[in-house]
Sequence to fold (705 residues):
Amino acid sequence: MKKISIFKKPITQYSLFMPILCLFLVLIVNLIQTPHFFKITIQNGVLYGYIIDILNRSSGLVILAVGMTLVVASSGGTDISVGAVCALAGAVCVAALGTGETYKMPYIAAVLLALLIGLICGVFNGFLVSFMKVQPMVATLILFTAGRGIAQLVTGSFILYVKPKSFTYLGSFIPGVPIPTPCFVAAFVVILTWLVLTKTSLGMYIQSVGINSKASFLVGLNSKVIIFLTYVFCGICAAIAGLISVSRTASIDANNVGLYIELDAILAVAIGGNSLAGGKFSLAGSVIGAITIQALTTTLYAMRVAADQLPLYKAIVVVAIVAIQSPVLRKWFKNLTLKLAPGKPVKEAM
Amino acid sequence: MSKVNTAAPQSNGSGVFKRVAQKLLERNFLLFVTIVLFIIAYVAGLFAFKDKNFGNLQVFLNLLISNAGLIIIAVGMTMVLIIAGIDISVGSVVAVTCMMLAAMMEKAKMEPLPAVLIVLLFGVVFGAVQGWLISYLKLQPFIVTLAGMFFARGLTAVISLEMITVTNEAYVKLAQYKMYLPFGGYLNRKGEMIYPYIYPTVILALAIVVLGYIMLRYTKFGRTIYAVGGNEYSAMLMGLNVKRTKLLVYIINGFLATLGGVAYSLNTLGAFVELARGFEMDAIASTVIGGTPLTGGVGNVIGTLFGVLIKALIETFVSFQGNLSSWWSKIIISALLALFIVLQSLLAMRKEKQR
Fold:
């Protein structure tokens, strides 16, 4: 007997099912924990509430997750230097603007300089990975260890503060606009990337290189250049996230900007249902993954968990989420449900 | 192949020696480069810091003393890298080890020995869980150990958010127990003979290196590790138990991570949440500089020992120099890492071409 369904396939088979379910679960827990979770109010002319806070704080992570998704998809490796690149780009921007009452150079020039730094870091990583055939994790390990050191040299090992008020616009609110600026930036990056990937063949190229770079090369794709480009893009994304991060506090602390954020970004990609072995990817999944992680963090803060203890709970959730997605466990569950369900042929379970 | 054939007829003594040497060099090229680099760096240090007693044996021994924990952990990391895995949780495991030891001895007033045993058991269990997730559930090692890293760091904070200093008498005594060497002494200004010393942790670390070398090189299990790392699929077809091997390697690694943590704790005699941050990257970098690539199937714990020593040497240079920021040591190590990585990949590319 066939059930009539509006879906072409079982709902659990959709690639976005798991990420959305995870986010949903986190939000449900929140709703029980704090009943006024979904309330959005307007205070001082800006939107205010848990949801807005999550969207605002997750925007940097969303941007990183987009870059990381492409890196993972094309090379089957991860870029662990993004946190250090965040710090470096932020440090360069702040150092270029100076700590005086006015900017030392035009704001836009400093931003472009920071983006250029991100680009250079990306070029460095990309060159090692694509042309030197170094494993992505090792190649990016170099900047991971050196990046913060260089950032410390740029800032002279001080925490620098930027005084002009306009510097904080990027990380908080532009006067008169009720929505946090980082949300706009994140949306802009996501939409632009999505358009480029779907309206050109680049998205398909990245997938095909990720699935089999040799075969793609034989078909006529320049695999190396495509992998290279994804790393460059990831570097720029990291620089944008770094700019948002320094703008939030109007200061740069090279030790702490973007600390551990590379791990969150990789988790976002994994929770988004993307295989870390490369190949097919879902940008939407990663974005949802990034928001899920921030929602989880905010939830735990709301439950009065100390910031330092946060990782413990995060780890448990992460293992649960990743284990659910494991093909071995899925098969096991499938067999179990087939055995338990009466009237269905058991032999399929074998 | 053709090279061997042409060389075979002329089997005079020097020819054989040359061939053996060539083969040894080819097989251990990266190890060779690491050791030569260490020697060059050390000799350069001798000249550069002549006035600061760099040649003193104690300076060299300090390299070992301050990195005993790292050496132990890097041996475990070498095995993990040989099976083409990775473990980025070791830094946090060191932190939680130190914290557990400190809490058990200070808060619960336990004796050092049971505390250490409990901690080592924790390491075995921790490694077993990670290994099970990686080998039996086929989750990616990076993600699993990433979660392990979060877990251990969070657990450290759960045990105590404040710094704990160890004051247990027996433990402090063990930590400060200097073992004097019978040679290499020098006369100080007062005319007394000062002999260089090491701590027990150094002997522990070197013993682990030797044990690791013997296990990897001469035991069935050690050869299985290489086989699994070289090609998992063909190892399986050969009838090797791939899953169990991987599980065991992660268990050993977990054990060594906590053992290294104990050595680290003997150095610091205290614990706080942010302890040993980035330690996992030190371990990975040292291992890679020591000639163990992340692709698996290749690796050597002797190289790893020298990798750690090179890292330690660079740190010593920076601190001897005096007015350089300590960040420079990170930058130099990264540059060195980059050099080695490029070298490794060039070698791999050459081999590919030869085929």
